[in-house]
């Protein structure tokens, strides 16, 4: 669809604005895996309530926007084993790397962090090889 | 109070951005990663768009000593590239490609992702709980023969 990239750009600007508000408002880096992970193991500088309120905002705005969109298709696979393995890899991997697409990708690369660039290159490479392997070779996704 | 209001605003902007950009649609993420399939460039526009306000915010950060709430600003970025960063990012990337979901969008689609999404989130939380113990095992020096 030709207008997808425009919505991508608008959505991206909103994501970046959220990160800017969090950085200049609360002095924190907006990394989703760090915010979620810190709630699980108590690591990091934020309090539990700050994390919960942030995540509530993330989870609730799509509900408010939904009436303008109608049915939203997530295309999430029905294969629960694939989802469970993927979730474990995402959970372990983001905690090892101390960041994900928002922390290393958006917040890290925008400050020209070498860790941000290395992490992003690694997860895009692994994701690309993974999708090609799982989709075109093994046919599991 | 102000700190929580700011967290709510930031989280809402993040959630709205993920939803509007289509990043909660796993087909878009897998479409970006699948260079041999019907390649979908949307994610590049999302990343690029997000980088603009963030880069400006980092410039403002360099001219300030504290955040709006008086909280300390993040220290300069670490330059340390270690095996944990690389191994973790590779593991994360495989999971990201497999499901088409990363942590932010998994939370943003909590209300409409269905049973599959709950399985993913539960597994992700389990992985996050297990990570410190797994990391400790990796860090343990290999005993000499």
Helix coverage percent of chain A: over 70%
- Largest contact between chains: A-B, 108 and 115 residues
- How far apart the termini of chain A lie comes to 22 Å
Overall mean confidence score, pLDDT of chain B: 95
Q: How much is the radius of gyration of chain B in Å?
A: 19 Å
Count of strand segments of chain A: 0
Helical content of chain B stands at 55-70%
What's the N-to-C terminus distance of chain B? 58 Å
How confident overall, as mean pLDDT of chain A? 95
Q: Total number of helical segments of chain B?
A: 6
The gyration radius over C-alpha positions of chain A equals: 17 Å
**Strand count, sense and closure of the main sheet of chain B?**
none
Shape of chain A: globular
Instruction: Give the H and E element order of chain B.
Output: HHHHHH
Protein name (chain B): YeeE/YedE family protein
InterPro entries (chain B): DUF6691
Pfam families (chain B): DUF6691
Transmembrane segments (chain B): 42-60, 81-99, 111-131
Tell me what you see in this structure.
The complex is a heterodimer of chains A (141) and B (145). Chain A has 141 residues and is mainly alpha-helical. Helix content of chain A is 72%, strand content 0%. The two termini of chain A are 22 Å apart. The model of chain A has no long low-confidence stretch (mean pLDDT 95). By secondary structure, chain B is an all-alpha fold. Chain B has one domain. In chain B, helix 2 packs across helix 4. Chain B starts with a helix and ends in a 6-residue tail after the last helix. Classes of the chains: A mainly alpha (141), B mainly alpha (145). Chains A and B meet through helix 1, helix 2, helix 3, helix 4 and helix 5 of A and helix 1, helix 2, helix 3, helix 4 and helix 5 of B. Chain A: It is a multi-pass membrane protein. Chain A: InterPro entries: Sulf_transp_TsuA/YedE. Chain A: It is found in: Cell inner membrane.
């Amino acid at each position: 669809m030709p207008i997808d990239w425009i919505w991508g750009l608008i959505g991206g600007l909103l994501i970046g604005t959220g990160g800017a508000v969090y950085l200049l408002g609360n002095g924190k880096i907006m990394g989703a895996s760090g915010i979620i992970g810190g709630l699980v193991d108590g690591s990091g500088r934020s309090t539990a309530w700050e994390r919960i309120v942030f995540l509530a905002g993330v989870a609730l705005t799509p509900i408010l926007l939904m009436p303008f969109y109608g049915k939203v298709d997530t295309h999430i696979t029905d294969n629960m084993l694939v989802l469970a393995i993927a979730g474990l890899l995402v959970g372990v991997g983001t905690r090892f790397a101390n960041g994900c697409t928002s922390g290393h990708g958006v917040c890290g690369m925008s400050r020209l962090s070498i860790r941000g660039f290395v992490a992003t290159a690694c997860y895009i490479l692994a994701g690309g090889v993974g999708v090609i392997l799982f989709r075109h070779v093994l046919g599991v996704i | 109070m102000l700190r929580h209001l700011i967290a709510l605003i930031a989280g809402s902007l993040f959630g709205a951005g993920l939803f509007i950009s289509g990043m909660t649609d796993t087909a878009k993420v897998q479409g970006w990663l699948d260079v041999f399939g019907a390649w979908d460039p949307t994610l590049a526009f999302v990343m690029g768009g997000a980088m603009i306000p963030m880069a400006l915010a980092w410039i403002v950060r360099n001219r300030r000593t504290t955040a709006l709430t008086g909280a300390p600003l993040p220290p300069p970025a670490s330059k340390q590239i270690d095996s944990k960063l690389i191994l973790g990012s590779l593991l994360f990337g495989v999971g990201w490609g497999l499901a088409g979901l990363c942590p932010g969008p998994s939370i943003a689609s909590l209300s409409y992702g269905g049973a599959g999404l709950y399985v993913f989130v539960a597994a992700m939380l389990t992985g996050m709980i297990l990570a410190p113990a797994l990391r400790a095992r990796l860090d343990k020096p290999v005993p000499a023969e």
